[in-house]
Specification:
The structure is a homotrimer of 301-residue chains. The first copy, chain A, has 301 residues and is α/β, with parallel strands linked by helices. In chain A, 50% of the residues lie in helices and 14% in strands. Chain A contains twelve helices and eleven strands. In chain A, strands 2-1-3-4-5-8-9-10-11 form a nine-stranded mixed β-sheet, with helices on both faces. A two-stranded antiparallel ribbon of chain A has the order 6-7. In chain A, β1, α2 and β2 form a beta-alpha-beta unit. In chain A, α2 packs across α9 and α2 packs parallel to α11. The interface between A and B is medium-sized, with 31 and 34 residues.
Chain lengths: 301, 301, 301
């Protein structure tokens, strides 16, 4: 089943519309091709509707967000919703600034988002905002969008480590239950499948919970490894729009496995973080369903 | 002759102004350096004239086009025309949206473009637009540029595969004559040398036709491999502005040959698409005229 | 002492705010991670203050500068100054256009810049502008910023080689004294530590002068190798804000040493410029204080 998702993506070769940051755009495009899908990047307000229309899924990533890009994401997202294309949101930098946090809340509110894929700090931050403002979260979406009155400030004060995971947010066996709860709750608040990545990866639609125990710590030394995973999620969901939960699990397993292969290779060759990144994409271009099924370490909760 | 172009580029080390997309900008800059030329990227309306003035050629690439970037391309292109610098256009995404298609038509109309380098879908799309609207194609270039009245809609309906080649547009021995005809006609309509890349590469100025049989299918798994070729065309034309046809043939041969070397290497080392991309640029940095002449498989029509 | 800076950066893992060009952003982020620091890129006027506030240092790079980005740099820089975070300026393209040159002069004038890291052409150009207009340099900073009246034109006429080093500006033993003088004078004019990189690297605060004799000519074949160094300077200064001079020397030595290692490796494996870039970042991710102290070739003047 999971393996089939990888093979189907290569067969269907879906076109995936990515609106992402320039830090990671090249890697996201290359890993999309490595999955067997085709990337297209477009962000001008005057073409995003047309581009999304010919694509099979939309990936929106708030890295280096600007106001202009946010507008394009909203327009593209609404079109994708009308066409029932999966929309994948990567909330890069949730909590680092009002601009990003509010933009992410607006995207979740105004669009029907199928998957939110973030690291444990980002997902926890979103969970905190929703839970602290439960029932009263209201975002004004006029010219000068603000979250009115109700956004409790504690959520803003919690430390964030830029776009990376804060030390206190590293997922361990001890705090795993908390993070599972947070992901499930966030799924409930938003209606999206939550993919929270870390030392243990958590995928949940609010009801069923899957844990993936693959991956390697070197992934944190490659910028945009999470963004790349979001693009893989987009590719797999684009090829399997009716089975996004399975597609997310397959994507997380695939990325984790590629991280393990890449780590073995650099260990053997005594190489560093840049070679690791190359091998990561290499293995994604070589992966098939059988290898995924042999390597994935999946746990159901 | 062709080999000399490569060697001359290393000797002259021309400065090449690129206005390109952020997905491919790093690779385009690195392959320009690998050719022996120097890249400079600049796109602010207030500096593009000055930057183009100190450069030897201008490469404009419509990937992730925005209105602002289009204006910069027009200003830079007009300055390059005045200075008789070669202008190379990479019509990324021709046909994916009105914004891109119209922008490309405006660039061709308002500038004197020496080379158009695109994949077979992009070049075919442009050929269709010109041939279906032959004699009547009129583009309003006011504040709100539109192609008035005369753009026949069939050209818009033909399927495009995002920024990559649609299956129906893969060049084979069976449809080769059609694609040669299309490229020659487009050269006639636009006055530019057409470089159409695919399984067989076609280079034509509307009169003479050269085919290059180098390359490898892995090139399609690297984002921006076509964009990189356009930058190589820019570097070679910048060093040989009087011999752009030869420069285009040399660039296509060089890129194809590097693709073959890179494929041999990843096959031997059992590596994937990201290593292929690294070796592609590696070989470009090592290539000289002799190796090109030994490896190029050229056919005159 | 120098070695400790590298180790401290890994221990403290500071967050570094980079406002840089899209050509080099991915490499800058990856080399920041390779140093043990965390990169964050943000450039929207509405979030740069907040982002800079949670960071430990700010790196601003004028590659592909736009008016919008300049505004963000000024706002972020002022906030960093208030918080006493080190500000590192990479004056990419000083002299290629009025936009860039004036922007760089404004950044130096309006901000307290701790380090200016440029190649020998850029630093020489800035030295010329300051020395030729000594005492009278005045920059209007209204809506339409200009350098009024006093900018002597000879400085504008001197040839620049785009964003790379012009042949006449290559540092050799013969012209070394001139470049040391220029760097010292520029440090005096600006109050910043000057890091001028070339075949011999010069680091000076206007009083003491350190030369670093590491590095390899292949660094010039990798786009953004200088920009990456500026990000390393940012990481080391962020971890050692009281010892920026030492941090600059350590960064220059580290980058030079990584260039030497990478060159040995491609020589042995007969690889080219793209592999060199990968190994450069690889070695940065593996470097520690002991290896730096064993390899650095430092000279005090």
């Amino acid at each position: 089943m999971l393996g089939q998702i990888i093979n189907q993506t290569r067969e269907k070769a879906p076109l995936i519309h990515n609106i992402t940051s320039y830090v990671v755009a090249n890697d996201c495009a290359n890993i999309t091709l490595a999955c067997g899908a085709y990337p297209i990047m477009a962000e001008d307000l005057n073409e995003v509707k047309e581009v999304t229309s010919i694509a099979a899924a939309l990936v929106i990533n708030t890295g280096i967000l600007t106001e202009g890009k946010l507008s394009a994401m909203l327009v593209a997202g609404k079109k994708a919703n009308v066409l029932a294309h999966p929309v994948i949101l990567d909330p890069v930098g949730a909590g680092v600034s009002k601009l990003r946090t509010y933009a992410i809340l607006r995207l979740i509110k105004e669009l029907s988002v199928q998957v939110i894929r973030g690291n444990s700090s980002e997902i926890k931050k979103l969970y905190e905002i929703y839970s602290m403002n439960s029932g009263t979260l209201r975002i004004e979406t006029g010219d000068n969008p603000t979250i009115v009155g109700t956004l409790r400030t504690e959520a803003d004060i919690n430390p964030v480590k830029g776009v990376d995971v804060a030390d206190m947010d590293i997922i361990t066996k001890n705090n795993l239950d908390f993070f599972i709860m947070a992901a499930k709750e966030l799924a409930g608040y938003t209606g999206a499948i939550i993919v929270m990545t870390g030392a243990i990866d958590i995928i949940t639609d609010g009801t069923s919970v899957r844990l993936v125990h693959n991956g390697n710590a070197m992934l944190k030394l490659v910028t945009g490894s999470g963004c790349m995973l979001s693009s893989v999620v987009g590719a797999y969901c684009g090829a399997n729009p009716k089975g996004c939960m399975e597609a997310c699990v397959a994507a997380v397993g695939a990325m984790g496995l590629c991280g393990e292969y890449a780590y073995e290779k650099i260990l053997h060759k005594q190489e560093g973080s840049a070679s690791f990144r190359i091998y990561l994409i290499d293995f994604m271009s070589q992966l098939d369903g059988d290898r995924l099924m042999q390597g994935i370490r999946l746990e159901e909760r």
